[in-house]
Amino acid sequence: MKAETYRTEIQNFDVIILGTGPGGLQAAIHASRKKVNVLVMGRPESSSLYKAHIENYCCVEGVKTGQELLDAGMSQAASFGVKFLREDAVATSVTGNGMFEITSEDGGIYRCHSLIFATGVSRKGLGLKGEKDLVGRGVSYCVDCDANFYRDASVAVTGGGSAAVHGALTLERLAREVTLITDTLDVSHALRKELDASKVDVLKGRKVKKLIGKDKLTGIELDDGTVLDLDGLFIERGAKGAMELAAFLGVNLDPEKFTFILTDEKQSTNIPGIFAAGDICGPPFQMAKAVGEGCVAGMHAALHVKAMKRKEDRVDNT
Fold first, then answer.
1. Residue 237 near residue 144, CB atoms below 8 Å
2. DSSP 3-state helix, strand, coil percentages of the chain (rounded to 5)?
3. Which domain holds residue 60?
């Protein structure tokens, strides 16, 4: 589906949503149905869902590609009047009258009463040749999303944090062989103990140097020359979302890692009018969670807009 693009130098909207993944699209659908005008910013191909395959989403039978689901979501949102801007936000601020102002990568300025962060989290790749081409073809950035596709397979996880170790332990229950490749292991004592008691083969002090395979991953080469034949490689090196954009507005992040946005039961942040949904709110990184949070965020963002407009009308009539 070719989404409608809305581009002017300066525009006002009731609700602006950063992110075109399942959380952002569901927020757009629910907000627009409450008769507020909505702009969604971002590129759908940047969503972690775009190249994924889904078979565990309620009421959707069979295996669906992420692109199929996102295209359908964009079409549905567009039918309710949602506008799309295929650009990323590069700056955020607050105007003198309390509206939020977003600057796009092309320099466009967009203002709103309610702002929803649904940007997901940026996966840290390895930067290897052919890596992007092999995503969804043996390379994955999310064990929780794709582990089920590697039953009785030979897989590896690269990374040294809790995400990597937890991923390797999850895969151990499904895959035939699991190898954890890490240059340094930095996890809690309890998680390290669980890893030591598992059947995961841990290669410490190693790094992935090369991906093998043209149309599908068939193996990897490590920096010491070791070659591993694999069906899948999971890159779990941690994640970083659009934290700078949120933090600049004073949005509270999780106090331990500062990698997720804190929200309440309404998906509201500590800043009135700013909401968040999906992976940017923390794990589990699942479409079902993102859609549910997007629904809640979209409805309450629209309600905030209406409350602000009623307040403005009262001021104008005094």
1. no
2. 30, 25, 40
3. 10-122+239-316
